[in-house]
Amino acid sequence: MGSKGGSGPTESTVTQTNLPEYAEPFYRDLLTRVGYESAVPYTPYGDRRLEYFTPSEQEAMRRFEQLGVSGTPAELDAAGSVAAQIGGGNPYAAAMLESTRRGQEMPSYGYQSMVGQLQPYMSPYQQMVVNREKDEAMRQSEIMGQNIGLQAAGSGSLGGYREAIMQSERQRNLEDQMGDIQTAGSQRAFEQAMAGFESDEARRAAAAQMNMEQARAAASMGQSAFGQLMSADQQRLAAAGLLGDFTMQRQQMEMERLRGMQAAGQIERELMQRGLDIGYSDFLRQQAYPKEQLSFYSSMLQGIPIAPGQVSQAYGITPSMTQQLLGSGIAGVGLYNAFGG
User: Fold this and answer.
1) Domain end position, chosen among 177, 205, 230
2) Is 214 in the same domain as 327?
3) What's the DSSP call for residue 8?
4) Residue span of the structural domain in which 3 resides
5) 45 CB contacts (<8 Å, ≥6 apart)?
6) Which of 28, 166, 246, 273: disulfide with 51, CB 3.0–4.6 Å?
7) Does 147 lie in the same domain as 8?
8) DSSP type of residue 120
9) 169, 203, 230 — which closes off a domain?
10) Distance (Å, rounded) from C-alpha 259 to C-alpha 264?
11) How confident is the prediction along the chain (341 residues), in pLDDT tens digits per residue?
């Protein structure tokens, strides 16, 4: 609608547009369907959207958790104990080394003769035999003295110089004989004691030699045992190292297997998740399908060249010629003033 004029009578024009009869049903149908679709309530998706962990993934995660809280494996503890024991020293090594030292430092047995060592070998009856021999010598000397006295009495020289010399000679012979008897007895006692002493010394020397040989053998065995012990410790230490390496490799292999199990379960879950995503995408397309059809319908209608009919009607008083001229004059004055008169 438009209006013309100033303070005088006005004129109004009303224009109406009408669709062609062949197009009107389609537009009415479009409006009806749009109203229906706009009134359709929200439809929630009825299926699940997210796929949960597969049994393989759950088992792998459970074993990973057990592996994490299980602590240090028993094999590594055993290997550490062996290494600590060897590092601290074997308790038997000191005894073996002491046995070896004693065997190597034992002195060889030597023959020693000391004063008084023969006394225990002296026979207590030897002096009695000597004394009896002395008594017999004294008895014989006394008999000889009596004979000298009788002879002196017979010759009339009893108590004389000759008798004195003979008695003195007898006494000296007796003393020499007594000394010889004592010396011979002592010699026999010494020889017997020496024989016993040497016999015992020989036995002691043999026993000492045997002990020394046994000690040396023990030292050799101790040294050999010590070497074997050290070798065994080295082998145990190497075995402990291998056990530790094996345990770590086993754990690494276990983790690799669990990762493989987890990856297989993840592939399975992702494939199932794709199925859920496809179902949800289909649901969205189904929900949008009517609206897409309406959009297509509307676009098709808008693409049809429709020329609606128009009817214009004017209402009010038509201006007179004087009013038209007056209006033209006012406009001319305005133009004159605009361009500087």
Assistant:
1) 230
2) no
3) S
4) 1-15+311-341
5) 280, 283
6) 273
7) no
8) G
9) 230
10) 9
11) 444 445 555 666 766 667 778 888 888 888 899 888 888 898 899 999 999 999 999 999 998 888 878 777 777 677 777 677 666 666 656 665 566 666 555 554 444 454 466 667 666 666 777 777 778 778 787 787 777 767 766 666 556 667 677 777 777 887 887 788 878 877 777 777 777 777 878 888 888 788 777 777 877 776 777 677 677 777 777 777 777 777 788 888 888 988 999 999 999 999 999 999 999 999 999 999 999 998 998 888 887 766 555 555 555 555 554 455 445 444 444 444 444 44
Are 224 and 145 found together in one domain? yes
Overall domain count for the chain: 2
- Distance, CA of 11 to chain centre: 106
Nearest to 136 by CA among 173, 172, 183, 174: 174
- Indicate whether 3 and 77 sit together in one domain: no
Indicate whether 179 belongs to any domain. yes
Residues 223 and 318 both lie in one domain: no
Picking from 179, 188, 178, 208, the residue whose alpha carbon sits closest to that of residue 118 is 188
In a domain, 170, yes or no: yes
Are the beta carbons of 137 and 174 closer than 8 angstroms?
yes
In this structure, the answer to whether residues 208 and 78 fall within a common structural domain is: yes
- What's the first-to-final CA gap in the chain, in angstroms? 37
Contact by Cβ (8 Å): 204, 109: yes
Residues 9 and 73 in one domain: no
Answer yes or no: do 2 and 131 share one domain. Answer: no
- Residues 6 or more apart whose CB falls under 8 angstroms from that of 14 comprise 1, 312, 313, 315
Within a domain: 237 = no
Longest C-alpha distance within the chain, in Å? 243
Looking at the domain assignment, is residue 182 inside a domain? Answer: yes
1 HSE (CA, 13 A, CB side): 6
DSSP 319: P
What is the CB-side half-sphere exposure of residue 153 using CA atoms within 13 A?
6
Per the structure block, which two tokens stand in for 3? 């209006």
